[in-house]
Design brief:
The chain has 439 residues and is of the alpha+beta class. Helix content is 32%, strand content 28%. The protein is built from 14 helices and 23 strands. A hairpin with a 5-residue loop joins strand 14 (301-303) and strand 15. The longest helix has 21 residues, at 167-187. The relative contact order is 0.14. The site of one magnesium ion has 3 residues, from strand 13.
Length: 439
């Protein structure tokens, strides 16, 4: 992609309304634009990151055995009356009425809809277990939308819902998601710690929040520091292995880790002092087991092997991709801008032409772009007629993992310069070796 033809509205000035670094950088780097309070447009560069975050989430959901579908964002109030949540949900729900004055709402979550879909077709234990997930926009009329896409009113959510015959089955479903989440956040370059959590309005009795430590986080958390060094379950993890998964979850829940709502000072005091960590964190994922809370009132029943009908046991599992984009920036930036982890970088390489209009430099850049792209790398080629300083600043701000800097002086010696955005290391490379060097 040539930058001169792209749409990258970066800002020179630091936007005054942005209180935290990720919000400032998302606006400055032209990732998003606020259209009204807590409602954002995802601009092309931001959308590429969001899509990559979703790709990592999808990959791990699929591996864990979840099946993707897509449910409507606009839901009927009727369904929420069936579960008893319509009145209870309160002001966070955006309520709408259509031209026939039917009560509708913009879904803040989708337990009711998915339970309706399930009950319409599943009758027998033979069709279980099932885990259905979607990645779709949600709306919550947050009292205080803030920090950009970290707490917005319209936001993207991956929400999965599991259906099992009994509690033991549901426990396995929970463990699948628990392990998938550990892999997902690690795959995004983040250290997320599962913490015992309050179940809130979704209800139920088994719940963990996945928290990323960050000073700007809105949650107050208490945990054993050792979790930061725990090993992530490998790609070879067998999600059908009930005992194996339970073992992994037991290990990841063996030490103290709780959000403030679940914090017990006495238990925390038993953690060796040098391992006690009282910190702030960002909730990036949340998993719940809630049994028959929705299946019972909504009549989602299956027949067991004994011929007896019973409500299915359910769980739900959320991740916030749009919040994650901000959380990744909170965790990975410097004074000059964003430093994207490779997995979610909007492009792999910023190709910087130091002398646009110089025939040899232009030709070298065009060839490098073609070679790298043919080799499977995504290149953003800065072919603008701008001073080198401005190009370097843009490249650092938008944080692509590699910068390839091409100018007449280097070319005369048969070299281009490669800079790694993360550590700032530079080296001179023969263009012939470039693809191998960057892969
Ligand atoms: P919070 O405590 O931050 O309000 P929540 O507990 O209400 O979040 P859940 O219902 O658990 O959120 O939703 C699942 C996930 O959706 C959260 O873990 C988070 O990643 C994301 N999420 C929730 N609310 C927002 C929001 N307003 N903006 C962006 N992402 C959100
Ligand atoms: Mg909330
Ligand atoms: Mg929460
Ligand atoms: Mg939550």
């Amino acid at each position: 992609m040539r930058l001169s033809r792209y749409f990258l509205p970066t800002l020179r000035e630091t936007p005054k309304e942005a209180e935290i670094v990720s919000h400032r950088l998302m606006l400055r780097a032209g990732l998003v634009r606020q259209e009204s309070a807590g409602i954002y447009a995802w601009l092309p560069l931001g959308l590429r990151v969001l899509n990559k975050v979703c790709a990592v989430i999808r990959r791990e959901q699929d591996r864990a055995g979840a099946i993707e579908l897509l449910m409507p964002t606009i839901q009927s109030a009727e369904l929420w009356r069936e579960s008893g949540r319509y009145e209870a949900y309160g002001k966070e729900m955006l309520r709408i009425s259509d031209r026939h004055e039917r009560e509708m709402l913009y879904g803040p979550t989708a337990e009711e809809v998915v339970t309706e879909i399930f009950r319409a077709s599943v009758r027998s234990y033979k069709d279980l277990p099932k885990n259905l997930y979607q990645i779709s926009w949600k709306f919550r009329d947050e009292v205080r939308p803030r920090f950009g896409t970290m707490r917005s009113r319209e936001f993207l959510m991956k929400d999965a819902y599991s259906f099992d015959l009994d509690q033991a089955g549901a426990r396995h479903a929970y463990n699948r998601m628990f392990v998938a989440y550990l892999r997902t956040f690690a795959g995004l370059g983040l250290k997320a710690i599962p913490m015992r959590a309050d179940t809130g309005p979704i209800g139920g009795d088994l719940s963990h929040e996945f928290i990323i430590l960050a000073q700007t986080g809105e949650s107050e958390v208490f945990c054993d520091r050792s979790y930061l060094d725990f090993e992530i379950p490998p790609v070879t993890t067998d999600f059908e292995d009930v005992a194996g998964l339970q073992g992994t979850v037991d290990r990841w829940t063996s030490l103290y880790a709780a959000t403030s709502e679940m914090h017990e000072a006495d238990a925390f005091a038993e953690v060796p002092v040098d391992r006690q960590m009282a910190a702030r964190g960002i909730e990036v994922g949340h998993i719940f087991y809630f049994g028959t809370k929705y299946s019972e009132p909504m009549g989602a029943r299956v027949t067991g092997p004994d011929g007896v009908e019973r409500p299915v046991h359910m769980g739900s599992y959320g991740i916030g991709p749009s919040r994650l984009v901000a959380a990744i920036i909170e965790a990975s930036h410097d004074e000059a801008g964003i430093i994207w982890p490779d997995a979610v970088a909007p492009f792999d390489v910023a190709l910087i032409n130091l002398k646009v209009g110089d025939a040899a430099t232009d030709a070298a850049c065009a060839e490098i772009q073609a070679t790298l792209e043919a080799g499977g790398l995504e290149v953003l080629y800065d072919d603008r007629d701008e001073r080198p300083g401005a190009k370097f600043a843009t490249a650092d701000l938008i944080g692509l993992p590699w910068q390839v800097i091409v100018g007449p002086r280097g070319l005369a010696e048969g070299k281009v310069e490669v800079k790694r955005r993360a550590g700032g290391e530079r080296e001179n490379v023969d263009p012939i070796d470039l693809l191998a060097r960057l892969k």
